[in-house]
């Protein structure tokens, strides 16, 4: 391992570690021991399922509830958990449990895996991530218990745990059946618990710990400043963007689907609101659905594509280009329109380096989606709407489908696997794997005007 670290960059190690886990998961799921009927699963389907789990996406080519047996479900759950926490984080945890000290290279690798700018308090941060993850998943499982146990008996305990982990990790893989959570579209408790798990994990671990630290200071040191005033800029942007996107998404779905009998048209007012809220939450990389995506109106389809492309927030289990990235691009546009050189948010200045990275993430993700759509159209038949939807769902690690994934051929499955993998490790990470960074030029080159717009 140390030899590999000397010859590979941290980005390459992280991307390869995900590939290794996907390969191991594929081999396990392809065996007859993992399927319900005792026959070997075609490797491409096993690989697709393993990729979907590790990349916490949720797209599947076979029905999870009926195709796999208990061993298969255990493998799937383990892959989801590894994918949610990250392969490097899991490896570091085992190293710590064995009583071994982390080397400097291991700390740097972990820092890159969590996208952190400092190695200060890194081990403590990891412990808090692991404990926080298991605690929230346990609470979610307990909340699910009354419903699933009453419906499935003792098996409901397993169902509660599985869906709590799947919801928190934003995987969206379920044991209910081919219709996901559509049978629970009117079940208030299941909807609320699932949405809560998705939103909490989608905020990102940085926001968690910042909020908890501020609350401790507020009530432990009799601090008179408000909680909001003490939050870091990152947390403020995440809270504002998350709330804005969830609210706007819910309102738009409610308006666009109000009379659509294929989705919420026949529901009562409270049922329409609940289904609209769940749709707005799940499109932020969760994967569970309570209404058929195939029946969405065209305006709702466009809203869904935008929300899937945006995703959740950094340093969490969500995918997409991230809420902060979208906010920074928007702020940069506003600053340009107003003729400002500095980009200001909540009385803080955002560095040009951050703006460039945000722009790179959006553009690389956009061009990757266009390329994937074109290739998918070349190799697979189907409507353009279904193909575009599926690509954005895979790249955003969302996992909701218009029933297209289950009917595509081998080429289409491989293309979507690549999309899910790219969406999980991040578009910039994939580019950096094959890129040698330029050395900084000591002297600045002459500046020249270029007409834009």
TrEMBL record:
It is found in: Cell membrane. GO terms for cellular component: plasma membrane. One of its GO terms (molecular function) is monoatomic cation transmembrane transporter activity. The chain crosses the membrane at residues 12-34, 46-68, 74-98, 129-150, 156-176, 188-209, 237-256, 319-337, 358-379, 411-436. Pfam families: TrkH. GO terms for biological process: metal ion transport. It is a multi-pass membrane protein. Coiled coil: none annotated. The keyword Transport applies. PANTHER family: KTR SYSTEM POTASSIUM UPTAKE PROTEIN B (PTHR32024:SF1), TRK SYSTEM POTASSIUM UPTAKE PROTEIN TRKG-RELATED (PTHR32024). This is TrkH family potassium uptake protein. It comes from Eubacterium plexicaudatum ASF492. The lineage of its organism: Bacteria, Bacillati, Bacillota, Clostridia, Eubacteriales.
